[in-house]
């Protein structure tokens, strides 16, 4: 049983500030260790339910946050700051399940701690078929394209609520409740690891009952940027339509092509905003 695990960092228990998720600060070094432990807990739980092979895609920031020698020995590790398919690089139809570990709320969910969607400097909101979505919903497009169900999501409660709009049968693991953009009530790290371990085990135990992401095709992503310059830039890409001064729309009956187009807009905006 092959498991694809995409991991972010803002959804880790205890994380409430950018300094905790960006190196080289001492706080970051501590919290990358907490992230590592949560990832390993997910793998351990999956192993208990029959998982045999794991690909971990390090998907946070420069995407080189985990320590390979401390990663669970049954996992391979995909890292590096440029991946054509970003958070979903490496997924194909040979996998049986997708895990999203330490995910966070969307740019449009102002109640979620450290909320953003891919590029916080450029993107103000993303909607999938009219509903506000975060990275879990967007990334589910790639899972749908490959015919692999998303079965586990961990993070704060807002993240889970947003993911369930498109993956209603996921095993949800809430490790914290957001208070504001920079505050949250988290469970103890040991408890977070227990919850993730048990969630992963339960997810695979009922894998046959979990359907593919519930996304009507053709699907449409609408992206609201912080300013019109980003929207104008995005229209240089084929298939991107300007809807409003700051809003563009991408539509496709192929979910993987739609996802690819969205990633292209993100990379384009990132090159300008950074």
Automatic annotation (TrEMBL):
CDD domains linked to this entry: DAP_dppA_1
UniProt cross-references to Pfam families, sorted A to Z: Peptidase_M55
InterPro entries: DppA_N, Peptidase_M55, Peptidase_M55_sf
TM annotation in the entry: none
UniProt protein name: Peptidase M55
């Amino acid at each position: 049983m092959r498991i694809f695990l995409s991991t972010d960092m803002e959804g880790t228990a205890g994380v409430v500030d950018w300094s905790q998720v960006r190196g080289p600060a001492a706080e970051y070094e501590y919290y990358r260790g907490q992230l590592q432990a949560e990832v390993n807990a997910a793998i351990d739980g999956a192993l208990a339910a029959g998982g045999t092979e794991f690909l971990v895609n390090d998907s946070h920031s420069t995407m080189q946050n985990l320590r390979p020698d401390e990663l669970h020995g049954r996992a391979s590790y995909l890292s590096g700051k440029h991946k054509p398919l970003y958070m979903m690089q490496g997924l194909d139809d040979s996998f049986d399940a997708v895990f999203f570990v330490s995910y966070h709320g969307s740019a449009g969910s102002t109640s979620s701690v450290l909320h953003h969607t891919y590029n916080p400097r450029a993107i103000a909101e993303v909607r999938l078929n009219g509903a506000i979505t975060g990275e879990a919903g967007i990334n589910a497009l790639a899972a749908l394209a490959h015919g692999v169900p998303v079965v586990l999501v961990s993070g704060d409660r807002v993240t889970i609520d947003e993911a369930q709009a498109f993956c209603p049968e996921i095993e949800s693991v809430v490790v914290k409740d957001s208070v504001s953009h920079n505050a949250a009530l988290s469970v103890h790290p040991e408890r977070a690891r227990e919850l993730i371990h048990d969630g992963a085990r339960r997810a695979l135990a009922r894998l046959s009952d979990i359907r593919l992401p519930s996304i009507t095709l053709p699907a449409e992503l609408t992206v609201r940027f912080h300013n019109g310059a980003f929207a104008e830039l995005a229209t240089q890409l084929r298939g991107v339509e300007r809807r409003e001064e700051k809003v563009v729309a991408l539509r496709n009956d192929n979910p993987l092509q739609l996802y690819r187009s969205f990633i292209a807009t993100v990379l384009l905006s990132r090159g300008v905003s950074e």
